[in-house]
Design brief:
- By secondary structure, the protein is mainly alpha-helical.
- It has 5 helices and 2 strands.
- Helix 4 crosses helix 5.
């Protein structure tokens, strides 16, 4: 199994990392996306908790980011939203809302 630092690197370091992909998607809508370090730790902790490893990172990110991807892109056009910060409170709320927190370890 990968340790916490390795999973955080997978999320942030490669050229096509998940966080860079989301940043680019929001950038295409004119929104500057910021994901706090606490959120990165939260994502990695959930992947470890459910024993999902690196492959589970995408599912957890999607659970957190899905609403933001739809809500903010329409808001950016209507209200001139230009910046979005994903903090721990937002990530926790949307992760719980997604139902992924009810998963059981296999």
């Amino acid at each position: 199994p990968l340790d916490k630092d390795a999973l955080i690197n997978i999320l942030t370091e490669p050229k096509n990392s998940l966080i860079k992909q989301y940043t680019k998607l929001f950038e295409m809508e004119g929104i500057k996306l910021t994901v706090t370090k606490e959120v990165l730790n939260f994502i990695v902790d959930r992947a470890n908790e459910f024993k999902l490893g690196a492959r589970g990172l995408r599912a957890i990110c999607e659970a957190i980011m899905l609403d933001a991807m739809y809500e903010t892109t329409s808001e950016s056009k209507e209200n001139q939203l230009s910046e979005l910060t994903i903090d721990l409170a937002y990530a926790t709320k949307h992760f719980e809302k997604s139902g992924m927190s009810k998963l059981r370890v296999a």
